[in-house]
Every structure is written in C-alpha cells, then in structure tokens.
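Appendix B, example 12.
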Amino acid sequence: MKLLRFSSISDNYRDLEITDIVIEALEVLLNHILYLRDVYPTQIFKKRRIYNTPVYISIYPPLNSYLHNVLKSARELLKNKELRCLEAKLYKEDLEEYEVYRFMIVNPIAFNKEKQDEFLIDFEEQIRASLYLMAERLKLLPKLPNDARFKVLLQTTQAAFVKFSQNPHHQDFPWLCSNCVDKPTSKQEEISLLPLTSIKSLNISLMADIVR
C-alpha cells in the first residue's frame, strides 16, 4: 500500500493539501482497525513506522487496491466539502452487521502553515495517541466470527453522488447508492455507540465511534 509518507508526517507537509493529510490518517486508521480486529490474517500486514510509531499496514494487493480506490473517492468528496462521514463496516454475508466504525470529518479547510501547527507536531501526536487508544479499546471487544467481511461506505449528498458517478476519473471504480434505512429491531435498540478517538488539529475535527 502506497502511503503519502513513510516515516513522519512532518517530512513533506508543505507539498500536501489538507485533504491529503486527512486521507492518509484515515488510511492508517482503517488498516489499524482491520489488523486489531483480525478481519484478515495477520500475515498480510507488515509493521511500518508512520507518525513516528509502529503501525501494521496491509501488503495484500486486493485489499490495497480496494482501499486505494475508496480513499481516492473519499479525497474527491472531501476536497469538494461533500464528504459527511466515512463508515467502515464489519459484517456477515447476509448483511448482518457486527461492527460499524464511523469517522466524522468536520471543517477540512486549508490551514495557515505559519500559524497552525507549522510542522504538524500536534497533529502527529494526536494521531499517535489515537492509535494507542484504539488498540486499548478494541482489544477488549469479543473476537469477531470467522465469516466477518469488510466494506466502506461514504456518506454524501444526492447531488454530489450524481456528479461523482458521472466523473470519468472514477468510472473504473463505480459506487452504488444505498438508500436503505435500517428499521430498528429489538437487537438494534441495544446497540451502543462507543467513542474511539477524537483528533482536533489544523482546523480539522476527526471523530471515530464504533457501533455494536
């Protein structure tokens, strides 16, 4: 999987847009979740140093290709301020959901590099803290069944979806519009929303919750 940087997010920050910074953070967090929850065999993950901390990143081409295309689409929506939420779902083949991880992204605007965390030190520290906190919280969850599958949903507006689906740059990875509204059941009424982490830096608020 090709990440924007290989050691510290601070290295080449001047060449990056705020959307690139957010997308890489999401890429690392998604890999972190998949590794911690044993959705895929541990052998497909390789330890790398990102944000000055060890993180396990996928080296499995089909998964990397999927994540690349998902995040490419998310970047486009985020850049146009049309991305409301990114959801990572762990589910059964019959669409029964085991866990849903929701990443809410608020106010991803351009930042003043001279005044706002110039070398991204605060942002990097918050990412490191988030990775540690997520590891501590997720290891307390019960083991997922062996049939657990993974997919990503992007929440946007209907107008943005129509415009996006007509964009020739994204025709090789088409998206489907999901209008399904889950009807509450007795089981769903017992579902809990657990805060995983919150990153607030560079005029960004990135909040992650898990629904079980």
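The first helix runs from residue 18 to 36. The mean pLDDT is 77.
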